[in-house]
Amino acid sequence: MLKSAGSAGHTRGFAGFAAIVLVLVASLFAAHPTFAQLESIDDYPDVIDARVTATPQRARLIIDLSGPTEFAIVSLDKPNRIAIDVKAFELKILAPADVAGKGIVTGYTVEMAEKGRARTMLTLAEPAQVQQAYILDAVADQPARLVVDIIAATPEEFATKVASDLAASIANQGAAPATIPTDPGTHAPITATRPLVVLDPGHGGVDNGASAPNGTHEKDITLTFALQLQKVLIDSGRFDVALTREDDTYLSLNERVDLARQNKADLFISLHADSFQQPEIRGASVYTRDENATDVLDKVLADGENRYDIVAGFSVPQATPAVMDILVDLMRREMRKSSFLAAEAIVHQLEPSVALRRFPVRQADFFVLQAPDVPSVLVELGFLSNASDIANLQQSDWRDRVVNALARGIADYFDSTQKAAVAPQ
């Protein structure tokens, strides 16, 4: 039943940027289909807003735009900074908010460096590097955005980047080619052994799951998302990907868990789009398993999912009572820790892309997350009881945005686990 696929991919790096004069010349921006309409300054979008969040390990810059644009990034020293230039007509903000949190970015400025070019300058507390940078097209009530993720770097790595940017500046006679946006999941080297990600489209067959007033079923939405996410992950060249179902097939919750365990999955992701009696509740969230639900809604959702087997004519076998061996207990604790890290990584990438529920990393007693030896999360894509979520879930642009964010989150999770594995003990 488990369907798997994998293929080689490629990794895109960041283009250099002038470290001496920091001049962006329109004709030197690399051609890109998204930016074909930017033929003159009058076509450039406005910068609507900008914000930075920081922790000791990472930081994120989000620039809201009235439309897609081109950008370039450079590392500078004395003092250590990262500059991001975008093609822009004008600034619509007087003063951006202070950095949220304390970490590797201590402050930033946003200004028009010259006509047609807005510059954001990040001041670093310590050496750092760009992990990934990408443009999000406008969708629903969310504007176009430039998202730049910054992570800590060694002094040697930072010095190398400053030197390479300086060399690029000299080679381009002081001008900067555009930075190529990173594709989802491609911001780290491809490893020799690819982890297996098992995607579980919720429901199927006689089990429709939740249904929207217009007749859209949860089982169809989750399968569409799973198939698209599988393709994006495979195209990155970094993962093997399997689906618990590829068509309108019914599987019990127990069968879904067993498939992940039997195939020794490195990460199990169950996709859902539930409904609730309060139509104002909306937004995406990511769950890990915990017998104590985060709130009443989480308990209701978990109980509902766990009852679907009975509704569909199947019953979940009752586990025979047994004293847990201490090693199994330790394994379960470790998997829950890994599951939480995966949930955090996915939510971190969903945050600039879609509307999230308050406290989007949540816990509930979902049966499908019970595997003691596979990190497992459940992604609630939205609610079929909310009109805005229904519209988004059926919109291809919104789906692209979510799928790409999920792919980035999955890549981030495996990046962090690989770093932890090679770190000195």
Could you list some keywords that capture this structure?
425 residues; 7-stranded mixed sheet; 4-stranded antiparallel sheet; globular
Describe the protein.
With 425 residues, the protein is of the alpha/beta class. Helix content is 28%, strand content 25%. The longest helix is centred in the last third of the chain and has 27 residues. It is globular. About 9% of the residues have low confidence.
Per-chain topology:
Layout: E1 3-6, E2 47-54, E3 58-65, E4 71-76, E5 81-87, E6 105-114, E7 117-124, E8 128-136, E9 144-152, H1 155-171, E10 196-201, H2 218-235, E11 240-243, H3 253-262, E12 267-272, E13 284-289, H4 296-311, H5 326-350, E14 356-364, E15 376-380, H6 387-393, H7 396-422
Parallel strand pairs: 10-11, 10-12, 12-15, 13-14
Antiparallel strand pairs: 1-11, 2-3, 3-9, 4-5, 5-7, 6-7, 8-9, 13-15
